[in-house]
Each structure stands twice: as structure tokens, then as C-alpha cells.
Amino acid sequence: MGWGSGGRLNRTWSLGLTQAVGYHSLSSLRQRATTTNKSVTMNPRVAIPENPLTRFKSIYAALEKDRRWWRGSLRLRYGAMAAICTDGESGRIATGIRDMERQLKDASPWNLNVGPSIRFILGAVLYQNGDSAKAFIREVERVRKMFRAEKLHRALYMEMLAILVLRIQSGGGLVTKQTVSRFRNIYDEMKQNHRWLTGADDFPACAILTGQDGTSHSIGEKTESIYSELRSQKFAGGNPLQTASNLLFLADGSPRVLAERMSTLKTELRAHKVRINQMQYDELAILAFLDQPATRVVAEVLGNRDELKKIRPRFDAGTIFNVAVGIAFVKLSSRGAGKVAISQTKTLLDMQAVIAAQQAAVAGAAAASAAAS
Predict the structure, then answer these.
(1) Burial call 251-261: b when 16+ CB within 10 Å, e when fewer
(2) Within the chain, what is the greatest distance between any pair of CA atoms?
(3) 21: in domain
(4) Distance between terminal CA atoms of the chain?
(5) What does the pLDDT average to over 59-69?
(6) Phi/psi class of residue 15: alpha, beta or left (left: φ > 0; alpha: ψ in -120 to 50)?
């Protein structure tokens, strides 16, 4: 699924978390996250669960327990996935997320008001990172002015999600003009490679890439090389493939190796009668971070899928696959040969939350458009 869209409602996506912290150890993550700006010291509540499936079910049940009857449960599923690596007791996490959501609503002026689904996912990420709702909203207002100075498009939801990523990369410190300038340069590289695909909906991708090593040109070259290799593996070109290429930039391995790994996973899933189309490309990209046999990875995904089908109210098929992939990644990334660094695990899970929030934005815009017509 793609990075979502501000104005292009035909783009779809999945996944569920948001925090670009780069390639560092957990101790380094915590050290960076204690950077203090004028208003907040971030103290992440981070812990990789021993049994991610059980952890997800527990957090989801705690969130579902307090759900108002008129509220849908989709945001709770993504919120639970966003909180799967949050330390603490499930009931306390659920309360913390809801409190953060209310604080975001109270702190937001009318021009920064977003829908409840996006607020809920943002609340899960801010709570996990020990952030402040007021400080985050102030930073959104400040950085958006720098975006205007760089002549970047106005797109509230996408700007807010990108600023969230940049803020976490800075450990809660102020996002600098130099960072925004680098952000703009990476966006321009994307635009140069894919003029008609790249838009404001790629802002979160630019944010995650802004925190990586290398020049904006070298980053653009590698993401384009990954895109080309994926095309050679018969993946359909377009927005979802650009998303997958941007995610895979963070993975270890050459563009060819990563593309072949993603192709092998697709073949294995289809062998088990799992339908794979462009909407699942970012899930495949996340699984491609795992340098493990495709048979093992797919078996884990399918086992999670079967368990998730038992949850009531029942999840839709797309959400089941999305969450099953996230849970499989958390479990396999932390054990065995080819395991993934903790910070990489957090980075990818957090980007799932960004994409989930984008999905909520698209769904909300589509609903508003339908109501107006």
C-alpha cells in the first residue's frame, strides 16, 4: 500500500507505527530521546515483547473495553499495533493513549484539528515516546512555517506526520532549518525520479529518509535503484512501489538482493493462496528486511492471520494481513540468524503507524467528499 494521499484518494496502504530513529542500539535510542527542547524531555517507553501476538491481543482488548458504541474499532487495531512495543501494563497503556488523544484535541487550534482516528494513532506514538501533546502541536506550527519558506505544498495531515517523524529523530529537540532544507532536497530527488508519482503524500517518506546517512543525491540514487530492481522482478510500477523502495532503503543488502527477497516472499504467499497486489507492497517490503527463509516468514504470518481471525468484532481481511505481518516482523526480527537491530524494528513499526494515520486521513476525506456530493 502506498504512503497514502492528501489529494489522491485512490492511493491505499496499510501498516501501523511512527518513529524514525535510524540505525542505533536501544541504549543509543534512549540516549538520543532524552534531548530536551524548551518544553519536553522525551522518555520512550520501549520494550520488544517476547510474544508479540499475545501482546497485541492484550492491548487491543484493553482499548476495546472502553470503546464507545458509536466509535469504530479500526483505529483501535492500528493503535494496538502502534503500541505493541510500548512498555507497561496493557490497561495503563490504553488509558495513556486515550489521555494523549484528548490532550491533542485540547491543544490543537482550529487550523490543526484532525480527525479522531488520526489523533488516536498519533496519541499512541506520542505516548510511547513520552512526548507532550502541547509541545508537539507547537512544533507542528513552527515547522510548517519553515515548510512554507521552502515552498513545500500545504497538506496538513502529511505535514503533521512528517513533522512527527522529524521530531522523534531529533529526540524531542527543535527541528532545524538545515533539517528542513535536507528534507526539501530529498523531496526534489524523488520528484526528479518520479515527477508524476511524487507529491505531498510522500512527505513522511522524505522525513524518514532525512534522518539517514548519505547525501540527498545518493539517497535518491539508491531508492531509484531499488525501484528499478523491483520492476525487473515484475512488480507493478506506481505509488505503492515507490513506497516499498523508500522503506527498503533502510534495509541491509544490495537493491538486487532486497528485490529478490521481496519477490520470493510474494511467490511463497501466493503458493498459500494469499492474494498479493499493489496494496500489499509495503507489507512485503517490511518482511523483506528479514534475512530469513521465506517459508519460515510466511508460516509466521499465516499463523498470526489464523489467530487474528478469531478476534471479535472481526477484522477485515486487509487489516488482518497487515497486523499479521507487523506481529511476524516483531517476533522474527529479534531472534535467530539474520535478526534485525532493535532500532530498525522500531523504525519500521513506527512507519506503519504513519501509514495507518494516512489511511485514516484518506478515509476521512473520502467520507467527507461522499457526504458533500
Answers:
(1) beeebeebbbb
(2) 54
(3) no
(4) 27
(5) 88
(6) left
